[in-house]
């Protein structure tokens, strides 16, 4: 499996729409939230408004990437990288939000996708990365730990126990 992160462009429209349709048809919440918050039927609008640029309402700038399996030419997931943390993201959200489409889970994709996202964090000058997952999401926790994540603590947010992991990019090497 040869994975790479790509930006949402018309070149990948069919692959991205296919993944989002699969997710929507499942009824499961789309993660990261940002890729499901807009109507993608107007794909140009979707691409142009996917990332946060206006920080006036307390949001932070971010970068969104889709994870393409080059060998099969399908989008298998997505990551959203927040360029810095505000108070809310420091508690629950972190620097990277990631999700793998339902039909591609349990194949090691999340671990590889997070590794690619960490390379993007380095490019942005983020050397200490916070990732957060629900305590019940064992697969997500393993993917974070596989990339050097160290559990700092657990917090309860809206009745859900969230685990907060830090990845020190100066101390870990990337997973290939």
UniProtKB/TrEMBL annotation:
Keywords, sorted A to Z: Transferase
Pfam family for this entry, one: Acetyltransf_1
Transmembrane segments: none
Domain N-acetyltransferase: 3-170
Domain of life the protein comes from: Bacteria
Cross-referenced SUPFAM superfamilies: Acyl-CoA N-acyltransferases (Nat)
Gene3D superfamilies, alphabetized: 3.40.630.30
Keyword Chaperone belongs to the record: no
Gene Ontology terms, MF aspect: acyltransferase activity, transferring groups other than amino-acyl groups
UniProt xrefs under PANTHER family: ACETYLTRANSFERASE (PTHR39173)
Name used for this protein in its record: GNAT family acetyltransferase
The organism of origin for this protein: Blautia obeum
Lineage, uppermost ranks: Bacteria, Bacillati, Bacillota, Clostridia, Lachnospirales
